[in-house]
Amino acid sequence: MQGVMRGYIRAVDSVNHRIGRIAMYGIFVLMGILLWSSISKTFFLPSLWTLEMAQFVMVGYYILGGPYSIQLGSNVRMDLLYGEWSIRRKAWFDLLTVCFLIFYLCVLLYGAVSSTAYSLGYWKTEPFSYLFGIVTGSEEIGRLERSSSAWRPYMWPIKVVMIVGFLLMLLQCVSELCKDVLRLKGEEI
């Protein structure tokens, strides 16, 4: 069992490390978009797409970088008490809190899947079966959702990024749970 846990930890940490290292450069993309927005508003006609595109890039940056942040332990934590605790006590506390985080991420993932199914035009109540092609028979399919702004981009690409980000964060939290279990058993990680 410990070998399976170690393999899972290595695989998930490796994937999230790579994606996080790529996602961290999204801040430069965001800066470029906001710089162009400032230049175009000052010297040219204002671009319609810059504000909403900056929001989309920020969502990708934040959500895809979240698992990497959890992996590095750079997430926000109350170190007033936590910093003085022993490794074993920290592991017990992390084990408890990561269970709450996993539940919360499951709720967010369900909401993201439902929202993505809706943005693709599905109006019924089984978003997972729709996205994974499980439901057979007649389907209620509508139009693809677009933003209500003047630019009117499709919404499904950013919602797919949200699904991927929440899924990666959920996998990373399970990896952290496995690390805590190994720490409590006295294993070296």
From TrEMBL:
Keywords: Cell inner membrane, Cell membrane, Membrane, Transmembrane, Transmembrane helix, Transport
Location of the protein in the cell: Cell inner membrane
Topology in membrane: Multi-pass membrane protein
GO cellular component: plasma membrane
Signal peptide positions (record): none
Domain Tripartite ATP-independent periplasmic transporters DctQ component, first and last residues per copy: 30-127
GO molecular function, one term: transmembrane transporter activity
Transmembrane domains' residue ranges: 21-39, 51-70, 91-113, 154-174
Main subcellular localisation: membrane
Function: Part of the tripartite ATP-independent periplasmic (TRAP) transport system.
Family: Belongs to the TRAP transporter small permease family.
Subunit structure, interactors included: The complex comprises the extracytoplasmic solute receptor protein and the two transmembrane proteins.
Name of the protein in its database record: TRAP transporter small permease protein
Source organism of this protein record: Sulfitobacter geojensis
Lineage: Bacteria, Pseudomonadati, Pseudomonadota, Alphaproteobacteria, Rhodobacterales
